[in-house]
Amino acid sequence: MTSLLARRPRGIGWLAFITALVFVLPPALGSDWDSVGTQAAIWAMAAIGLDLMWGLAGHASLGQQGFIALGAYAVAVVTVKWGWGVQAALVVSVLVAAVAALAIGWIALRLKEIYLALATLGFGLMIPTILLALEYTGKATGLYGIPGIPAGDHMLNARQLYLLFWGIALVMVVLSLRVRYSMTGLSWRVFAHNQDVAESCGVNTVREKRKAFAVGAGLTGLAGGLYAVSSSAVSPATFSLHIVLILLVAVVVGGKGTIVGPVVGAMGVSVALLYSSKLGGLTDVVFGLGFVLALKVVPGGFVQTVQRVAGGLRPRRQDTAHAPAVAPVDEATAPAAHATDHVRRAAPTGDPVLTIQGVSKNFRGVIALSDVGLEVRPGEIHGIVGPNGAGKSTLLAVVSGLIHPDAGHVTWKGQELTRMPAWRRASTGLARTFQTPQLVTDLTVRENVALGLYMSVGKGLVRGVVGRERARLNATSETVLAVLDRLGLAHIAELECSELSFGQLRLTEFARCLVREPGLLLLDEAASGLDQAEKALLVDEVRKLADAGTTVCLIEHDTDLVARVCDNVTVLDAGVVLARGTGDEIFRNASVQASYMGGRDLNGRSGITPTADAEAMALDAHDLVVEGERVAD
Amino acid sequence: MTTLKAHGITCGYGKLPVLHDIALEVDPGDIVALVGPNGAGKTTLLKALSGEMGLTGGKVFIGDQDVTSWSIRDRIAAGLTHVPEHRHLFPNLSVRDNLLLGQVATRRKPEARSADELMTSVVDLFPVLGERMKSAAGTLSGGQQQMLAIGRGLMSEPSMILLDEPSLGLAPGVVERLLDAFRSLAERGVGILLVEQYVESALAVSSRGYVLRSGHISLEGASPELLGDRDRLVSAYFGTENVSVH
To answer: Is the distance from CB of B225 to CB of B193 less than 8 angstroms?
Structure first.
């Protein structure tokens, strides 16, 4: 049984490595390590928090010391002032930090990455300053007398505290890894790189960003709470910008986005600090040099570097990246035969299911769409063609919700879509591809396609980490692999998208739509960049979908393909509808030939062919386009 | 005008070989088509010629000069320009600035034409770029961005140009104009290596053609001859073992 996002539990090796370090370091480094190592566990937890926010969800926070301070002071106030137990106090520390993150998120998460980072920086500087001024928290002196963790009739000793904290850190690693490999974690990793893709797959990115921010801050707050417990006193001066620097170094050098990397990084930083602190005034110089050197030795992070080296040592089967050149052909020639013999099905009847009425859109004075109307029937394949800049992609963006029109309406199955956010449209059955394939390059083909199942698999954070949704998530891998197999991509399922050819990228994006069995499929430049065999495959799949009832709108410049596949075609020019009709009619239309085809007809002849027999023309089109079909003839 | 020549080209990504012992020649004034299925190594071959990708074997010559170890910039200065597959424009810069950047490596040459003159000829080819000169490149439609990428390539007054799927995303009418433009460039003595998915139109516009399959040249020859023997072309494209031609 293979799982959707990982064939075996990931990170087991790294967990073992970290656990080994936890036990090996104390005898190796001596008694100095007990307190420094406990501190390291706190760094590790805060680094995991930062990695969830930044490494997974793509939002760098420079205000981590603020969350740590809140967590620490929450524990101090609750235990010292209110007399609560330590365990309850730690829960409060998580909640306080998470709530603070939600508040920041409310204000700042709509900002672009760098502005958000600056906003958090301001927050981080603000918190200690407020604490410094507050009478209740003891001003500059802070609060002291925070009870330790009781173990029977005495308090934990230094070594026990060290082991306990690292135990907590390891549990945090395991849970965070489960987040990373859940559908929620996948959606975070996708919107961190590409919000449009996430939205079009049904991810409410605003909500998910807030969630990621709150979870990361909560863990950071817990780290602060544990700090308060371990040091028994808190004061504002402790929470300086220095903390942010250490966490950034831990995450970046350890390996951003890997969860285990920042933990290893936190250990490394702590060991480095232990030794460089003995150098007196040179501490910061040596630490800084070490950081620069570390980036040089492990570019892209320690964990990634180790994985790359290990991957390079593993013998790589030739066919992994080499087969694509040949393999799809075997599969493609068979469907191509069907494509040739495909009887033009009766034009779909029934009331229009997608209606676009009077849609207009201006971009700073440039008119992209002007009073565009369109009706598509259920199961219809509708082509949208026109010169470059005619507004075709803008129209698809309006239908998919990535652009809101200045005027006009879009309805789908009687539902008004016009003001519906893009992510919600996914639940009405919409799926789309993009003009340039939009895939997350450092995720594998399989992971990219899996996001297509976001709507049908558990989206809940908790349910994704534990519970039944996780089992359902694993079960869907069959769906992903079956679709990849149909498109001749099964052999590259585990390759990262950065290694694919352009045609494979386009088919992978198509696969992400296919797994959802969409009701309305929007394809922007459906076949451009595909080779002959890949085109035949795509055409066959689109026809199968339409036969099964999916409504398809496709933009494509291969006029032969459009004429053969589309039931109806709409021509846009300069933002207005120039003509509409069946493919054969459209490409014989003189004004279409003039504006779009450079005054040529479907067969590349100059001038108009008024008497051309539609059937003969379609046959010519076969000859022109699909090399693969000729092979199979 | 100079000849672009390469032999023994072998290279790949990491440990994965993509190209095996490729030999190829583009003479001045020649349009040479490079066709083949996706994943065959067409884009990689262009990168190997332009200097974007290091070779593990083989040599690249511009005229008589061995340029194998030259930087991309030096190759552009020597007349070899690459219009890459993914456009690689600067989306926040204006159309004009993107075009001007195309001249960076060559504008100090004494014989270089003025930027305005070159831009005028680019606009002649793609009038829409003239209308959008001051717009940020990122606000152009996909097809217009493709025109800009090609236009930027022409700004260095190349004597040899490597075009990676120039028709991608362009309307058929524009493709026709583009092919006409390539013909007139060739008449002026520019050598063109053209990668295209549209096998027939690529061979129709070119004088010679190469079919690349699985990193090997599986067929080469004069384009009319290649077009004339379809069975051979098809089997070179798909690989004989996969062909069921009767």
So the answer is: no
Interface of B with A in 58-77 (CB under 8 A): none
Cβ–Cβ gap A528/B214 under 8 Å: no
Q: How far apart are CA A351 and CA A463, in angstroms?
A: 41
d(CA A104, CA A130): 16
Element (H, E) at B160: strand B160-164
Q: Using one digit for the tens of pLDDT, what is the confidence trace for A353-395?
A: 999 999 999 988 788 999 999 999 999 999 999 888 889 999 9
More confident residue, A410 or A474: A410
Q: Nearest Cβ partner of A363 from B40, B139, B146?
A: B139
> What span, in angstroms and rounded, lies between the C-alpha atoms of B15 and A506?
25
Q: Longest C-alpha distance within chain B, in Å? A: 60
User: Tens of pLDDT along B179-230?
Assistant: 888 898 899 899 999 998 888 888 999 999 999 988 899 999 999 999 888 8
Which chain B residues are closer than 8 Å to A533 by Cβ? Answer: 37, 238
For residue B109, what is the DSSP state?
S
Which residues make Cβ contacts (< 8 Å) with residue A92, sequence separation at least 6? A74, A75, A78, A84, A225
Sign of CA dihedral A472, A475, A479, A484: positive
What is the C-alpha to C-alpha distance for residues A388 and A393, in angstroms, rounded to an integer? Answer: 10
pTM as predicted: 0.82
Of B140, B141, B169, the CB nearest to A528: B169
What confidence score (pLDDT) does residue B172 get? 84
Q: Which of B233, B230, B221 is nearest to B32 (CA)?
A: B221
User: pLDDT of A310-351, one tens digit each?
Assistant: 776 655 444 444 344 333 333 334 344 344 445 556 678 888
Q: Do A529 and B165 touch (CB under 8 A)?
A: yes
* Cβ proximity of A538 and A530 under 8 Å: yes
Length of chain A: 633
ipTM for the predicted complex: 0.74
Q: Report whether A385 contacts A360 (CB < 8 A).
A: no
- Residues with Cβ within 8 Å of A388's Cβ and at least 6 positions away in sequence, in order, are B128, B141, B142, B143, B144, B146, B147, B169, B170, B171, B174
Element (H, E) at A542: helix A532-547
CB A50 within 8 A of CB A221: no
- Measured between beta carbons, which residues in chain A are less than 8 angstroms from residue B36? 325, 531
List CB contacts (< 8 A) between B85 and chain A: 502
